[in-house]
Write a structure and sequence with these properties.
Blueprint: H1 8-18, E1 20-23, H2 29-45, H3 63-69, H4 72-82, E2 86-96, E3 104-107, E4 115-116, E5 121-126, E6 137-139, E7 151-153, E8 163-165, E9 175-176, E10 184-187, E11 193-195, E12 204-213, E13 217-218, E14 229-232
Antiparallel strand pairs: 1-10, 2-12, 2-14, 3-11, 4-13, 5-10, 5-12, 6-9, 6-11, 7-8
């Protein structure tokens, strides 16, 4: 893996200072090709959903999705930030179609999630080139040190969340996360971030993956949580979903799917 950071210590220092860090060329082109096939398969199965809304509730019976978030290259990065006992909390494709992709208004992830404590890290895997033109992630470096602000509804613009942070954000402080397919951007649950609409002719698809240490409790009436999967180390405090079994003709075929049968 070629990374923009030099080593784990460097990654942690940048993350602690800025609230984010970028790793380059984490996932190979062949697997990214399969990820693209997965996105198309999900959209065909769920025409009722906008492509920005292919969320964690679809994961429970999806062997490829669980295979992807279990990839050692991704879990190794997550382990740098949450420690050796790792579980999945959630994952979500935000796939902005050309010309009509919705924005994600400014927010802090920690304002939404039922986690105690808020010990969690997001890996954002680029499936497409991610640029300012097609609505790449934008974030405010250092804002992970701010208090967690409330959220307010915003119906003035159609957006992925329908909400925005209830404080003013100086967009001049924001930086663009320009990524190539296979790159991974890592960010803190309290960093202020969002993305603009995609008005370009190029799709912008990325997969968010939220990893937690197994000591972080998922606080919900719905347990096991639909996308709670134990990935590495001690199982900790949460109940987990069983890893889905691959059934030919029912699931997306992928390299290694036989091992999931």
């Amino acid at each position: 893996m070629t990374a923009e950071v030099l080593d784990e210590r460097d990654a942690r220092e940048r993350y602690d200072t800025d609230g984010y860090v970028i790793f380059r060329d984490v996932i190979d082109a062949d697997l990214i090709k399969e990820v693209n096939a997965h996105v198309e398969w999900l959209q065909a199965r769920h025409p009722e959903l906008r492509p920005e809304q292919l969320g964690h509730v679809l994961m429970r019976d999806d062997p490829f999705w669980v295979r992807l978030i279990s990839d050692d290259r991704l879990v190794d990065i997550a382990q740098m930030f949450v420690g050796p006992d790792v579980a999945l909390f959630a994952s979500h494709y935000i796939c902005k179609p050309p010309f009509s992709g919705q924005p994600v208004l400014w927010h802090q992830d920690g304002a939404f999630w039922p986690l105690e404590p808020m010990k969690v890290v997001t890996l954002w895997l680029a499936v497409d080139p991610s640029t300012p033109e097609n609505g790449c992630v934008r974030l405010v470096p250092g804002s992970h040190k701010w208090d967690v602000a409330g959220m307010r509804d915003n119906t003035d613009v159609e957006s992925v969340l329908g909400k925005e942070i209830a404080v003013d954000v100086d967009e001049n402080q924001a930086v663009d996360m320009v990524l190539r397919p296979g790159d991974v951007e890592v960010h803190h649950p309290h960093i202020v971030h969002g993305s603009n609409a995609n008005t370009s002719p190029q799709r912008r698809c990325g997969l968010t993956i939220r990893y937690i240490p197994t000591t972080t409790r998922i606080v919900s009436d719905e347990l096991p949580w639909p996308s709670a999967f134990h990935l590495r180390g001690a199982p900790g405090v949460n109940p987990y979903q069983p890893k889905p079994v691959y059934v030919e003709g029912e699931h997306l075929p992928f390299r290694g799917c036989e091992a999931w049968s």
